[in-house]
Amino acid sequence: MYRDPEAASPGAPSHDVLLVSAVVTVSLSVTVVLCSLCHWCQRKLGKRYKNSLETVGTPDSGRGRSEKKAIKLPAGGKVVNTAPVPGQTPHDESDRRTEPRSSVSDLVNSLTSEMLMLSPGSEEDEAHEGCSRENLGRIQFSVGYNFQESTLTVKIMKAQELPAKDFSGTSDPFVKIYLLPDKKHKLETKVKRKNLNPHWNETFLFEGFPYEKVVQRVLYLQVLDYDRFSRNDPIGEVSIPLNKVDLTQMQTFWKDLKPCSDGSGSRGELLLSLCYNPSANSIIVNIIKARNLKAMDIGGTSDPYVKVWLMYKDKRVEKKKTVTMKRNLNPIFNESFAFDIPTEKLRETTIIITVMDKDKLSRNDVIGKIYLSWKSGPGEVKHWKDMIARPRQPVAQWHQLKA
Is the pLDDT confidence value at 57 over 50? Predict the structure, then answer.
């Protein structure tokens, strides 16, 4: 900011000397300010640019190529041979990449303001927080029937604005295709790695399928997120009765994805609190209680316990768990767990909370999960932000369990 030179005092240098000195001083000050601003802008813009690239997803090398897969059926409409129906193509088992680590200030206040500014739930998600329906994206597909060859053709084109299901802030989507009420036989697209706007352009043929049988079926598409560590997470579904479609020519549709019928609504809720202590570099997770948990046992109940995983990037760092509550769909736990988390690693840390059903005779069942980080869903992001904004204070919130 420019300031006029002080008035000359007795014995001070001449007016010309003062004027030259003032000009030189102001020039140097402006140069320093511009340099620091330039460096700050580049750092901030660089972070936002990287985040925007991560959100868009990785372009797929096979985009634009159409592939065909077929099921042959006899006149009765039953599947005789699903070969050469390919299943899901081999998935890339390489380690998943996460966004590059951003430089984080040692000062907690700087970290807090940066996380609040960059978190995806900072403005728009809060504005839509009252909406009961979650945006699950939409899918484009086409369907038609060839009367001469008695073949139903389904083409899966692309999807847009899919939600991030992985703790890395993205998804690995693929599509399952059914002709309900037949649930036994299905076809699948390829998996598109780290892509929230995938292009498949894959064609599926149901051959030897009489038209009078086709119009009795319902085309059902389910979009899932592939997970090599656990079962695939459902993203959304679309169903369309074929008797309501003009099958004489290929019809193209854009449909909004709806929550899957076995979605999170029936899995129950979990109340937990988070407490962040910046001076101790720790987060305390308190598992308080659950309500309306899904019954996983034959007797109409469950034996729930809770696992808490600390994740850094894609690596599992530490696991803790509560005691098991026998035959209880509304258990009260009140158990706390402390995790050491350096401040500079907080932005790439995820806490995964899994409610399990204990089973003595078989494998324990997953009732539901919660992913807590600064880049999860709107409710999870809000809890994470509140924890950062209120250090050393336990912040409690109910969370809907998800598949």
Answer: no
